[in-house]
Every structure is written in structure tokens, then in C-alpha cells.
């Protein structure tokens, strides 16, 4: 079903087994309505990335590495729409995906149970097969990535209060990147 139109912003895209189809995607929109799409989570994610003109490999190479995030890095798409990757099912077949994408900004709370955690997103709750500490780490990574991208906005020099804030890892990574560029230019001379 390649002609399905995804909403601009949603709460989650999760892998799901659809009757008489197989591996598909469960889409939870901002109102909490659930719809099932006959395509993979990866296809839905690629459609979203294309809609926002985001290059996933460039984010991985440049920003995720700079921030020290190796696997399952957050994907910033807009100011209030960052996706984090969480394990939301145990696949029945080896090649089926276990990971879905949840909107970081819409997460209200996390509750840890015996073998899974419940993530409350909007008015929905999603069963995640990761510990609460692991989910919180993904959320901190998303926060760092958002800070990193917020720092790339044009600077407002009239606002002196922003210069009194403590430096974050994102700030330091940005400075490090600039220093390396300057060093490279000096060595070329």
C-alpha cells in the first residue's frame, strides 16, 4: 500500500502483525486513533524522512557520532517532533523488525513492569520491551540532539541571557567540530 498518506506529525509508528497480510505498521495519530498500514515501519519512516527532507545517514554520521550516540539515535524532524527508537515487540520471524518509533515530545510517563515497560504517549500507552533506564537514556539522547539542533539556529545577539547558561554536550560537540575545521585549515597553509 504505497499510496498511503502519513500525517505530518504522529505519536508512533510501530511494527504490527496484520491479519491476512503479515508484517505491517500500526500508526497512532495525535488524537490517539490507531490505523494499520500494509507496509513496513522502515517504509513509513522513509516516507516521513522524505516529507521532512531529512537525510538519516547524514544525521548518523555527523551528529549522532559527535554526541557519542552509537545505536538507535533520535531523529529530529521538526522543533516539536523528534522520533526515538524503542523495542515494541518480540518478532515471530527472524527478519521482522522489533523496533518502532515514538514521538519524544509526547511521552508523558514511563512505568516499569516485570518484563516490559509501559510508555504513556498522548492518551495511549505502548508496551516497550526495554527497561525504564534504557528508555530514559534514549530520551536524554533526544534531548541532547534537540539542543544540538536548537544551537544551529541563527544566534540572537540581543539576548544576553543565553550566554549565562551552562555548556551542554551538544555545545561542546559543536565547538569541537569547529576547532577541528579551523585546525585543518591552518595545517593546510
Automatic annotation (TrEMBL):
Protein name: ComK protein
Organism: Thermoanaerobacterium butyriciformans
